[in-house]
Description:
Radius of gyration: 14 Å
CATH architecture: 2-Layer Sandwich
Distance between the termini: 25 Å
Strand order of the largest sheet: 1-2
Low-confidence stretches: none
CATH class: Alpha Beta
Number of strands: 2
Amino acid sequence: MPHVIVKLWPGKSEQQKRAMTKQIVEAVTATLGYGEESVSVALQEISSQDWKDQVYDADIAASPNALYKKPGYSM
């Protein structure tokens, strides 16, 4: 714990995916105080055709109070 799931469009290289995963793990361990061995990260590639149904409607619109960063807004 914690387990982070990143949903993204296909097409990113393995190098990009590994670099992002490394940064996520570093951020989680530095911010939350967990050891690296406690963090897992999964990447799920979702096609642009399926994005609205599988991600926007299911994860974003259905749970707006769970979002800490909303699409279209800066931090």
